Amino acid sequence: MKQLFALLILLLAHTAPAAELNLREADANRVVPVVVGDTVVITLAGNITTGYSWSLARLEIDAADAQKPSVKSVGDIAYQRAPAPPGLVGSGGMFVARFTAAAEGKAVVRLEYKRPFEKDKPAAKTFAVTLVVKPAKALPKKDGSDAPPTLVATYSVVAFDPATGDLGVAVQSKFFGVGSVVPWARAGVGAIATQAEANVTYGPDGLKLLAEGKSAKETLGALTAADARREFRQLGIVDAQGRVASFTGEKCHDWAGQIEGKQFAAQGNLLASESVVKGMAAAFEKARASAKGELADWLVAALDAAEAAGGDRRGRQSAALLVVREQGGYARANDRYVDLRVEDNVEPIKELGRLLEIHKQFYPNQHAAKPKRAVNDKRPDEK
Fold this sequence. Notes:
Number of strands: 19
Strand content: 25-35%
Largest sheet: 6 strands, antiparallel
CATH architecture of the largest domain: 4-Layer Sandwich
Number of domains: 2
Number of helices: 7
Distance between the termini: 63 Å
Structural class: alpha+beta
CATH class of the largest domain: Alpha Beta
Shape: globular
Order of helices and strands: HEEEEEEEEEEEEEHHEEEEHHEEHH
Helix content: 10-25%
């Protein structure tokens, strides 16, 4: 028995960590990839005082092994009443349904909002989502570490605007306070995004290498070469000449990868699919080509497109936007031109966009007076 227990612990320690995916009404009719062990939480608005409630209409299972359902319902659907002023009755709340990915296969979860006693009447609202369950990905033994750090599974984009010299990073993740980990930038030097099993030393060390004159590619090579756990890292870099480099370690969780474009790099891990990164790159290029807005707008447009393509397969939680400019900060005393963070929000990218618009209203002069890079600021090898 002791040997069996030890084997179980060993297997659990070396498989990809289970994730919790949070879905809402906006996710209706999506096809969502999950892995065995993941928990899917569906939260839908409703008002139980009206007699209506959300219930599981059907769970349509298409499992690879008919004896092992791919998705299982976990407990009853719970109702959480929204806070209301004293004396106010009849306020609404949220219905929360939980499911677990149990085995490889596919399942369609169908929920309906109706009064239980009105059996012959159609539902007032319905919700459906398709869950595609894949086996958990095995991980090799952690060499010498006590426990794996929390994964900053996410998508990000680093970019350079040659017209102004602005450098920036935008990021979104199902991770609290992603802005304190992923984005790093310094005016006239470069911008860096470090994620997955994030090595936060990549930020300051990378900026130091860039400031010493190394290119984005040279900096990436130096950082990863010195890191024994580089295959668990993901990294995107753009230097002050617009040269880019991006790296995805072989042990990053699927889907993981990157696209290096002209003066930008988009990368992500634990994503719904490759289309997330492709959508991010296409949206950035489209926004830049429109000649509307500025680098901050283009970066947020890239995040919007990534989320529309499926985003982080665990869901949404935090986002950040960092754009640096020489003397672009408060009172022209630093380079933090735009530094916005959404630490915990059900719609972090939407909130990030709202904050950016407030920033433009609060600092109209900085946004109106865009700097112009002199032609002689460019290097012959700049893209």
